[in-house]
Each structure stands twice: as C-alpha cells, then as structure tokens.
Write a structure and sequence with these properties.
α1 crosses α2. By secondary structure, this protein is mainly α. The chain has one domain. It is built from 2 helices and no strands.
C-alpha cells in the first residue's frame, strides 16, 4: 500500500512540476515576445526617422535643382533675347534654317 501511495505522490509531484515548468515556459515566451515586439517597434521607429530624413533631403535637393535650372534657363533666355535684339537679321536667318531642317526631318519620316 505504501508503494502505491508513494507512486501516487510521485505522480502528483510530477504533475505539479510539469505545470510549474509549463507556466514558467509560458512566462518566458511572453517575455520573449514582448521583447521582440519592443525591438520591432524600435526598428520601425528608426526606419521611419531615416525615411523621413531621406525624404526631407530629397525635397531640399529637388528644390535646389529647380532653382538652379530655373536661374540657368532665365540666363539663357536673357542671352537669346539680347542676341536677337542686337542681330535681328541673323536671328531670322537661323530661325528659317532651323524651320527648314525640322520640316525636312518630318518630311523624310512621313515618306518611310
């Protein structure tokens, strides 16, 4: 009888140990998931900041390029206007020549 009681007590102890171990494993899993969640949130936050910085830098660079190209275009336009005012006959001749070349290019494409 004593052996039976010892066996039952051993089984009960084993059950309790298994429950305790399962509970501890569950807690460790929760802690691990919580830590993983925190790391993922930190990584997402860091990525969001880097992307925001990159976007801001890209916007600034695009603005600089626009301003630079706009200024260059304005300078070229002013130069062309000044040239036409000083050399009106040459400007008309160049325009006529350019018009004939463009017409010839389109005429050759239409024949093909």
């Amino acid at each position: 009888m004593r052996a039976k009681n010892d066996l039952q007590e051993s089984v009960e102890n084993t059950k309790e140990n298994a429950k305790t171990m399962a509970s501890q494993a569950g807690e460790k899993a929760k802690e691990g998931l919580s830590s993983l969640k925190d790391q993922a949130q930190d990584a997402a936050s860091t990525l969001r900041e880097k992307m925001s910085d990159a976007l801001h830098k890209s916007q600034e660079k695009a603005k600089e390029l626009y301003e630079t190209s706009s200024a260059k275009f304005s300078d070229i336009q002013d130069s062309v206007v000044a040239y036409v005012k000083h050399n009106p006959l040459k400007a008309i001749g160049y325009s006529a020549l350019a018009g004939m070349l463009i017409a010839k290019l389109f005429r050759n494409k239409n024949k093909e």
